[in-house]
Design goal:
mainly alpha, two-stranded parallel ribbon, two-stranded antiparallel ribbon, 21 helices, globular
């Protein structure tokens, strides 16, 4: 019997057991349900942070005297914050632990949200939104890793993929919450500097969720897989034993595993013989090597291809997508002033500039109902595409969705009523969100496992660049030259669809060993490396 066979035996005696086998022996129950619930709430909060400006700032525009260009820069500030933290949080989670990063970022972002709630100046709002984007990058990058490291092997992939639906669900929950909160007739002045209005209550609600989740993670354990990877076998085993007790209702002594096998324990870094600075230095060095390998053959082509497609997708999804509620508001305002008349978008934009609107810090109920319809459409489309994803080529769903999204965005310019706008906007948002989620899966398929995490983070970085560019264009030109941002989105998304068609379907079979290539050499991938889908879309 070989040494590897000994390590794989069940731990009825004192033999060391590999992590996945020990994880299976904890069972599946109460602990997993609680950790899944906490991670699901975190993913929803990330979605809230990505889409909340579509609801709060149109409602706050009159109260704070914000121009469309300023609304655009507030969106850009959030995206820049996300770009700045794109590679930061994953590395920090490798050096300090997943739990520590999640707790710190959530509680800090809760404080920022409270400051945002009482802010009355554009500069303060902009700084807060930048910090929101920066801190939201932590749960966006680390949550799926944390969740996946508690799952048994047979369920891991399905649980992580299913968790992505919570991000889509947030785009439905956002307007539902707005439905209950923003139409409230509340206007309370506290002192001479703070006024409680519905949109501020909305922010308080989101801040409370982040604070509660941050405190919730205090009672959840660190990832045992991470602890094992850094050489803390006893701590990892203690957590697995507690999972066993919670899942099966038995005593800790009944857990059959007595020792864990760690194949990387002979590595000084993983064994915890250097400090956090040394770990961070090693991680950054490895990340640099991985990044260089992405821009060398045979990966150069698919790196450029995936980054360009993600740029075009998020140029539309988080550009025009964040301005759709504003379009609903403008159509509604025109319908009130000119009942039984229709208007094209270009005339609607000019009218909004020439008309002095009455300041109303609430949000029209019909507009909220429209965004709920859009959210439901996105959720149903996501479920349907998830079902057929295993029956078609990896490029089919992003190609079809991007094609439909590009055609829908182009047609918005010629719409003449709020109803037409709702139909087209629902198609656009649903297809773009599904394309965004599926593109992350495509990147995972195209790249070797050893550089998958870095590849996704790079693609998401370029996607955020696209979203930032789009929001700047919309903010500057929406009022007077709305045709430019509308057709810019259409051209970009249609270009992305064409690029999806040239995705190499058999890439994983034709090129390299997906588990061994990085920077032209074979490397050993340690347990401490984050899973290849660490960067959630829109984080």
């Amino acid at each position: 019997m070989g040494a590897s066979d000994i390590h794989r035996k069940s731990a009825s005696a004192e033999e060391s057991v590999e992590f996945d086998e020990a994880l299976v022996l904890t069972g599946y129950g109460r602990f997993h349900f609680e950790s899944l619930a906490a991670c699901a709430l975190g993913i929803v909060i990330v979605g809230f942070q990505n889409g909340i400006t579509s609801y709060i700032f149109p409602a706050a525009q009159c109260e704070l005297d914000l121009a469309s260009s300023q609304l655009g820069f507030l969106n850009v500030a959030f995206l820049v914050g996300g770009m700045c933290s794109c590679f930061f949080w994953g590395s920090l989670a490798d050096a300090l632990g997943r739990k520590y990063v999640l707790i710190t970022s959530l509680l800090l972002d809760c404080v920022v949200m409270i400051v945002l709630t009482v802010s009355n100046h554009v500069m303060c709002l902009t700084i807060c939104r930048f910090l929101n984007g920066f801190f939201a990058g932590a749960p966006g990058s680390v949550l799926l890793s944390y969740l996946g490291e508690f799952q048994p092997p047979k369920l891991r992939s399905g649980i992580i993929c299913g968790a992505g639906l919570f991000f889509t669900s947030s785009w439905l929950l956002l307007p539902i919450l707005a439905w209950f909160i923003l139409p409230l007739n509340i206007h309370i002045t506290i002192g001479s500097w703070f006024i409680i209005t519905p949109w501020r209550l909305y922010l308080i609600f989101v801040a409370i969720q982040e604070g509660v989740l941050g405190l919730w993670f205090l009672r959840l354990p660190e990832s045992p897989k991470y602890l094992l990877a850094i050489g803390k076998k006893k701590e990892a085993l203690d957590i697995l034993r507690k999972m066993f007790v919670l899942n099966k209702g038995k005593s800790p002594e009944e857990y059959p595993v007595k020792s864990l096998y760690c194949p990387s324990a002979n590595n000084d870094v993983l064994a915890g013989k250097v400090g956090c600075i040394g770990k961070a230095s090693r991680i950054l060095r490895d990340m640099s090597a991985q990044m260089k390998s992405l821009f060398k053959t045979p990966l150069l082509f698919i790196t450029i291809l995936s980054c360009t497609i993600m740029f075009t997708n998020m140029f539309g999804a988080f550009g025009l997508g964040l301005w759709l509620p504003e379009l609903f508001i403008r159509f509604k305002q025109y319908a009130v002033l000119h009942p039984n008349e229709t208007v094209t978008l270009d005339k609607l934009a000019l009218l909004s500039v020439a008309t002095n609107k009455t300041c109303d810090s609430t949000f029209d109920l019909s507009v909220i109902q429209n965004t709920v319809v859009m959210g439901l459409t996105s959720l149903v489309t996501s479920v349907f595409c998830g079902y057929i994803s295993t029956k078609v080529s990896i490029k089919t769903i992003p190609f079809v969705c991007m094609l439909l999204g590009g055609l829908a965005s182009a047609s918005i310019y010629w719409l003449r009523s709020a109803t037409q706008n709702l139909i087209v906007a629902s198609v656009f948002q649903a297809t773009m969100i599904v394309a965004n989620m599926s593109l992350s899966g495509v990147v995972v398929e195209l790249f070797p496992t050893s550089v998958g995490a870095t590849a996704i983070c790079l693609a998401m970085f370029m996607g955020r660049m696209g979203a930032m560019t789009s929001n700047m264009v919309f903010g500057l030109l929406m009022d007077e030259h709305c045709e430019i941002p509308i057709f810019a989105v259409a051209v970009n998304v249609l270009l992305g669809a064409l690029l999806c068609w040239v995705i190499p379907v058999n890439q994983s079979e034709e090129k390299i060993d997906k588990n061994s290539y990085v920077a032209g050499k074979t490397v050993e991938i340690s347990l401490v490396t984050l899973p290849k889908n660490e960067c959630n879309p829109g984080a």
